[in-house]
Structure formats: structure tokens, C-alpha cells
Amino acid sequence: MTAPSNDAGRNWAGNITFRAARRHRPSTVDELRTVMADAEHIRAIGTAHSFNRIADSTGDLVSVAGLRPSIAIDAKAATVTVGGAVRYGDLASHLYAAGYALHNLGSLPHISIAGAVATGTHGSGDRNGNLATAVRALRMVTADGDLVTLRRGEAGFDGAVVALGLLGVVVDVTLAIEPAFEVRQFVFERLPWSRLVESFDEILRDAYSTSLFTSWSGPVVDQVWRKKRTDEPAPPGGDWFGAVPATGPLHPIRSMPADNCTAQLGAPGPWHERLPHFRLEFTPSAGDELQSEFLVPREHAVAALTAVDGIRDRIAPVLQISELRSVAADELWLSPSYRRETIGIHFTWIPDTAAVLPVVAAVEEVLAPFAPRPHWGKIFTTPLDAVAARYERWDDFQRLAATYDPGGKLRSQYDAWQSG
After folding, report:
1. Each residue of 280-325: pLDDT tens digit?
2. Are the C-beta atoms of 33 and 145 separated by less than 8 Å?
3. What residue segments make up the domains of the chain, in order of their start?
């Protein structure tokens, strides 16, 4: 099992150089408690798979990757308690060997559990909540060095799960599990844009998890990845809403080799080897991309996509690929899907911050009527007060954060998040 960390002083994409004067990697919880109590300003860092300064600090950075990466299954409670630094791919392999599954996985199995949960990172599926909705308890070290456990149903729990690292450093997380299942992945090409607009809901709800990839360069969606459980009906052969079945494995970016992608062509396999887009044994390319994502209410999906399509001439020159996916509503205060069925509009940009930022601003402008919530760990330019206004429980969260960190030791420099 791998407990990852980032010791290079930069984030995964290389567009952020961390400013912390000191970096800590404690090997025990007691050491972590001492580090927290002694610091004046401190932030937690995981796999550094973020594209803004959400994890940055001008004082100290701390990683829990040095703690023992434990995994403990409680079959009676149908939960697993896992170290915060453990990657989803490592946890998934362990669970599958024991006959269990998580309800959802992100595109990359390489990200740490605590970091993904804290930022509301998600997989895909009309009936699937984001990764944080599986949390049943979490244990964290607060700013003063106290060790605190919060459980689902307790006061403040719904504000403490997607907490952006502002309440404490998460040591371990308890997640809901279910019996293992198998999935078939079917990829279709060249879905006509007109058919997507006409049948959007039907297309998205067709499978357990559906992702649409577009380069915003023409009247078609380049690829549709349909991930269907084997206990769901297999799709009929032939065209599907005007899209045609792929004849071989594909990468979402057509010029890239498909070797590092999960198995396609309808071959059945374990849930954790189909729900992600990429295989755990392949290291994602670092420094070759920037990312943004905007999550809009499901009822505005077609209008929002049409608005983005209206500026595709600006988007396409700085884009590698864009992914569209759905996420179920939840009750987590700072989750981008809080109390609204959601469509994620994700952008993988070229690694050129100066060229990308004006286009991100243009995307935000056309999406503004739909109250988009930007992914907390990715590039956006909207001021924090405008983002906060899109979260009904923002003030409640601020009060919760002040309870656990009254001195602001964990406070992030919000105004520096966006540009890097």
C-alpha cells in the first residue's frame, strides 16, 4: 500500500510553488498533535492534486502520509475506516479482495481520500453522490492539537466533511461500503450535439456512471463513456442516439495512447477497475495540464452547456478536453452538490496559466446566470464572496470553523486561490 506525499515544494501540475517556510511529515498522531499546537499558521497537504493555493501556507505545511496507512473493515456496520493519506486506488483494491465496494470513484484512483473528501471531489452518476457522501465519521487533529471524532448525525458533521482543511487535519475517515459489483464500460463516438440537447436526461441516466468528452470544436460530443453494472441490462448493439460504438480502446484525448485507461469494449471487470477512467498502475502525467470545473444545477444543464458552446472559439485553442458528468444532490454544506442535482462541466486546459485564465473568466461569465459552484481545488477567478453567496450554509460553516480554530491558524488565503 502506498501513502503518497508531495515533497517537491510544488503541486501536481507544477503551476503552484508552495510558500511554506517549514514542512512536516509526522509519523504518529501524537507528533501531529504537537506540530499543530506549535504552529502559528498551518495547512494540510495530500497528493497536491490541486491547481490553486487552497493547500498553501506562508507558515507550515503538514502531511499525514507518514502515519501508518491503516484500513479496517467493519462488516457489521458496513464501513471501512482508512487513513486520510491512503489513495482511493489502494483502498479499492483492498476492499474488492474482501468482497466490498465504495459507491463511487473519481476519474483518477491516485488521489488521497482526505483531500478528495475535503474539496467535494466527485465521480459521476445520476444516482451517485460525490465521494464525500460516503463519509460516516472522521477523526482530525484541530488547531490546538486536540484529537476530535465527528460522526454522521452529530451537530456540525454535515459542515465538517467538505471542510477545505479549515477545521483540522484529518487523520482517518470512516466510509460506507457495500457488496462488490462488476461493471462493463462502453465507449461511443461522435454523439450529435443536437441529440444531446434533445435527450440530455435520458443520455445521462442511461448508465450507473456516464461521462461525455468534448473538445468544443464542432457539432458533436467526441466520446461518451457509459459504465454499466453487470446487474443492469447491457446496451443493444449499433448506434446510440446517433453515436457509434468505438471499435477499439480510446483515451479521452484522442491523440493520447489508451494504455493507461481502464478496460473498455464492454469487458466485465471489478468496480474499481472500471469506474475510474485511468488505471492505478499508470502514473498520471504531471505538469502537462491545468484544470477547472464548474458545477451547475441540473435543471439548467442544457442552457448552461449551450452558453459555453457559444464561446467555443475561445475555449478550443487552450483546451485539451472537457468532461460533462452528473452528480446527485447531498446535504454537505460546502459540497458543490449541496441540495441540488448537479452537472459538472470540467475543463482540462493546456499548461499555460496566462493563456488559460482569461478563458476561465469568460466561461464563468457565460455561466454566471446559472450560479455555478467552482470546484474548490481547481482554477477559478470568481471572488470568494460571490462563490460564498452560492452556498446557503456558508455563514454556518464560518461559525463552525471558528469553533475548531478560533485563532484562524488553519485559515487559507482565499484571495490567492484562483490564479496561482
Report:
1. 888 765 568 999 999 999 999 999 999 999 999 999 999 999 999 9
2. yes
3. 182-384
